[in-house]
Amino acid sequence: MSFVYEEIIHGYPKEKRYTLAILQDIQKRNGFIPREAMEYLSQYLGLPVSNIYSIATFYKALSLKPKGKHIIKVCSGTACHIRGSGTIKEELLELLGIKPGETSEDGLFSVEVVNCLGACALAPVVVIDDKYYGNMTKDKVKSVIDQYKEERVHG
Ligand code: FES
Fold first, then answer.
1. Strand order in the sheet with 109-114
2. Does 140 lie in the same domain as 80?
3. Is residue 114 within 6 Å of ligand 1 at its C-beta?
4. Residue 104 sits in which domain range?
5. Which atom of ligand 1 is nearest the CA belonging to 77?
6. What number does the ligand 1 atom closest to the CA of 78 have?
7. Ligand 1 pocket member 145 (CB < 6 A)
8. Tally of structural domains, the chain
């Protein structure tokens, strides 16, 4: 069944104070907030679209674009930083041609830079979906990305 944002929106009272809750709900159920959903919400609440848009862009957890098939988290916590996570992050972003928070052109990967992933003993750490890759190096990162591209890694 396709995603019906009207239904979510109508589940809330027509009050401004629910704007964020509605956006969070749409995000949760759709993975991102489509432009039409913001337009529809602005009519529903009688608010300018620009208001909705600024809320949607202010909160990091909300995304206006679809996320990639795989979510890559690069740790920039202290332990990882000391052991060279910066180089790994740069390599990864260069390989995918994107910036943190963006999604690669082919829709396969989104990259997030995060703080400690709770696996400092494996530093530097990269997590792809729910899989941990420890003791990362520039070369390793490239081969892991290649494996995902070729769909050699399964959930
Ligand atoms: S600092 Fe990277 S996992 Fe803890």
1. 109-114, 70-75, 126-128, 131-133
2. yes
3. no
4. 70-149
5. 1
6. 1
7. no
8. 2
